[in-house]
Amino acid sequence: MEQVNCSVSNISEVLTDKDLRLEAGTFDKEAESAAVNVEHGKFPAVMFSEVAKYYMFGRSVKLMRTKSPYPFFQPSSVTDIKPVTDGYLYSSKQSEIDELKIHEGQLLLSRSGTIGNVTYVSKTLRDKYLSPDMIRIDCNNPEDAGYIYAYLKSSEGQKILHSLEFGAVIKHINPEHLQNIPVPNAPAELRRKIHELVVKSYALRDESNILLDEAESLLASELRLPPIDEMKHDDGALIFSINGLDFVNSGRFEASYHDPLFVEIVRHLQAEAEEVTTVGDKKVSKKVILPGIFKRVYVEDEKHGAVFIGGKQISELDPADKKFLAYSQHEKLINDVLIIHENMILITCIGTVGKATLVPKHWEGWTVSQNVMRIVPVSDDIAGYAYIFLGSEWGRSLIKRYSCGGVVEEVRDEHMKQVPFPFLKNKDAQDKINSLALEANSKRYEAYKLEREAMSIMENEIISA
User: Fold this and answer.
1) CA-to-CA distance for 322 and 155, rounded, in angstroms?
2) HSE of 19 in the Cβ direction (CA atoms, 13 Å)?
3) Sequence-distant (≥ 6) Cβ neighbours of residue 2 within 8 angstroms
4) Angle at which helices 380-391 and 393-401 cross, to 10°
5) Which of 51, 257, 305, 367 has CA atoms 20 to 30 A from the CA of 16?
6) Tens digits of per-residue pLDDT, 185-231?
7) Which uninterrupted H or E stretch holds 72?
């Protein structure tokens, strides 16, 4: 049962201090305590309006799937380490497109649905186009950006942000709600140190993304793979015929399974690869694991439970909304199938199918939802290469081929084992792809450590001091 928090507030707070806000969360005592801690902490507090400008835009542009010069990202994508384009912008007015461009050094704050996710704009997102449904924050002093980022991500910052929510079903905050958030005014040296740690962390994420792009480019070159859009036969309704024997032998009667695109990818791999086997081949993986559905029992901290994340969170460096799965209730399940280890490959297999991640070092011993497939590579000598292929647009397409379900797509472990998998003719190139992926994963671990150092200084030397 969900815990119910009760508290009593004076009517004068409603009429004066809280601007006639009647949502119970506005009077959350933990948030009030967090604000008091900041206001009366070791360092004097200033209001958010004194350190930054914050704004958002209206909804005036259209989102299309047809490619344009303006790749567009939704709020749910920008917290990913390597965001994927959600579509392309169209508007009859160039000014409406230009205002959605984001700039290096900005902070982005989610304002609808999941409140309080904050991102620093580095080279990966620089000059991209972002949903108007996200608050942009420009710090008055650009060298305060990393400091404000760490503060908003801190436990106190998050409590204060969530106390600003409004909305019955979908929660929101507006830019004007930020103006009276207290911010600890730490000495310039401390602010600069935190900022530099955050910037270095994001620079390492950028470097990891460059390495992954290089690895995928090398894969495409060695297999002579054209972009997936060029392999598609039609953008609209697709009608095709297949051999009746192929239809019966496959045992699959969904039209989508026999889409010529998938047949074309496999045919292409067979022509260009040294060998095309399957993910379940012992030369590729030791195990393909998909846990069954189970009732989860959570605890409050990591002392009594294993870190537990969901499918959406596997694209993030350090997921914010972690839960902790109780050892007392799930120890055997955790040890047998739920636990993940460095260089395992995770692939979402229910709902959004085919999103892949290579487990970084700092996730060692964590657990992941049963909606995520675990592939245990036969060794680290193939883990990175397998991740690059399965995470590529061609690999994702092959995984989706095996999905089933009328409303919610799903891929089972026996399906994943059947997904075609190519070995390259050029063994040196395959090893290079593997090493690039592992190096990228190592940089992500280093990025995590730098951000945790910044957060530790914020929480222990500034807020809790």
Assistant:
1) 13
2) 6
3) none
4) 80
5) 51
6) 999 999 999 999 999 999 999 999 999 999 999 999 999 999 988 88
7) strand 71-73
